[in-house]
Amino acid sequence: MNAFTIISKQVKYEGKVNSRKNQALPIGIIGSSLLILVFLLVVVLANGSAAFAFSEIKRLWYWVLLLSAGFGLQLGLFIHIRYMIREKMVGATAEVAASGAVSTGSMIACCSHGLVNLLPVFGISTAAVFLARYQLPFILFGVFSNLVGITIMMGLAQKNGITFSNPLLRLLAKLNMKIVRLFLIISGSIAIGISILVS
Fold this sequence. Notes:
Structural class: mainly alpha
Distance between the termini: 70 Å
Mean pLDDT: 74
Helix content: over 70%
Strand content: under 5%
Number of strands: 0
Shape: flat
């Protein structure tokens, strides 16, 4: 193998990584949009009414926006970090996979409040009444799970020396993510506890 072949393979590899890395924003937006579509689909299937689904989106728009934006940001961060790690060191993606599992858990937590509308279809009306009564704590759990998932991703980026071109992400990357995560867990627990008491 000559030097030209080695260099051309390296350029092809780096080009592939860079093109995938640049897909983080569109993939995050698509993921965020798909989460909203899943919410709409679940509500339509559970209630048989698209009008009701859109009224729920209108009524809960700020929560739906927070949940979907948080999920989209986690997904975009995951894509960016995954390809930056691949670019820096082959074989170091186990931590990203573990963090991705946490993100998936956060996504499930984000969607857990949507089960309120689906449970009556399965004949679980007692659970549906319970979940409907405590919808706000479930939504808060999803929001804080997203935020904790984002701190895990940002901590992973810090640990691997990954930088961001986005000024907001650059600013966030300067914070100690362990302290931010602890603050979010404590404040989230308090907010969820208060929401349970007032429900």
